[in-house]
């Protein structure tokens, strides 16, 4: 399983149809003192008569030892991983802001901004260069959402302290999501699935913590009136 995960790490799976070539099929062909094992996208592994194993990478010209991917090669996670981290960070920051402002129009504005960012990524992740309609929609949504947020700030609905906490929450959520994948890429985590689960868990906990801090700091303390004491019944 570790070698299978290393294959996936070295040869990123872009589509479901490319899963099988990446798999280490483990088909052995034995002839006298030589064993050849198919090693998926890595090529083949050969056990020669001397008892030594050699990894041969697959090239256009055939198998070559120099083209074998290093066992310590960094992992290549898909491009949609950092994009998902950005979407999670933006959502966490906007939710934290919404917890501080607590106005329906601001919540709607935050939703427009998030949908705009999502539409932008949909516009640039296309088989062609980009999708102009998705990018135009992203521009309209972000402009509308930011305009409402600016109006809320002018009206004094957005506190500076809440804005700072929301920004810190967004940054923390981004790195909470990405750190497990950084660790997996460097080989500190054995399985991509573990990195995914950690990213989801850490991101969710960080986002909830940021919103909780905003809610706690936004609660106004009960006012006290000097000289006034509680009355007691006779």
From TrEMBL:
- Top-level taxon: Bacteria
The UniProt transmembrane annotation reads 81-97, 104-121, 133-155, 162-185, 191-215
Could you tell me the keywords of this UniProt record? Membrane, Transmembrane, Transmembrane helix
Q: What is this protein called?
A: Uncharacterized protein
Q: Which organism is it from?
A: Thermocatellispora tengchongensis
């Amino acid at each position: 399983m570790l070698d299978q995960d290393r294959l996936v790490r070295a040869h990123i799976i872009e589509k479901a149809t490319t899963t099988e070539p990446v798999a280490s099929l483990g088909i052995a062909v034995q002839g006298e003192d030589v064993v050849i094992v198919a090693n998926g996208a890595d090529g083949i592994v050969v056990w020669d008569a001397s008892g030594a194993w050699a990894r041969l990478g697959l090239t256009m010209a055939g198998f070559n030892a120099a083209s074998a991917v290093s066992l310590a090669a960094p992992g290549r996670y898909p491009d949609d991983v950092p994009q998902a981290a950005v979407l999670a960070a933006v959502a966490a920051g906007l939710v934290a802001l919404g917890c501080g402002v607590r106005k329906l129009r601001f919540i709607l504005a935050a939703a427009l901004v998030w949908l705009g960012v999502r539409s932008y990524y949909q516009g640039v992740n296309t088989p062609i260069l980009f999708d102009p309609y998705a990018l135009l929609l992203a521009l309209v949504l972000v402009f509308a959402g930011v305009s409402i947020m600016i109006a809320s700030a002018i009206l004094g609905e957005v506190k500076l302290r809440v804005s700072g906490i929301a920004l810190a929450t967004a940054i923390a959520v981004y790195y909470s999501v990405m750190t497990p994948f950084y660790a997996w890429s460097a080989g500190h985590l054995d399985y991509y699935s573990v990195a995914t689960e950690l990213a989801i868990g850490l991101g969710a906990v960080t986002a909830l913590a940021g919103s909780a801090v905003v809610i706690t700091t936004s609660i106004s303390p009960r006012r006290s009136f000097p000289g006034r004491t509680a009355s007691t019944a006779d």
